[in-house]
């Protein structure tokens, strides 16, 4: 998985343009993702990347870069 793939998946889940996002983009502060959207995003990322991702992991990661690192680590552990 690469940064662009993750950005596209997040944009699709949230219904926003991927052009608004970079690796440093904060899901909560810059995009304004609330807890309901975070739950949906977590569910969509689980389905897209076939991983066991928890809500708190997405929330704690906050930036796309941190989320990418976390997802990469999870996929290596599987």
TrEMBL record:
The organism's place on the tree of life at top rank: Bacteria
Keyword annotations: Phosphopantetheine, Phosphoprotein
Protein name: Acyl carrier protein
InterPro entries listed in its UniProt record: ACP-like_sf, PP-bd_ACP, Ppantetheine_attach_site
Pfam family, one: PP-binding
Organism: Dendrosporobacter quercicolus
Residue ranges of domain Carrier in the record: 1-75
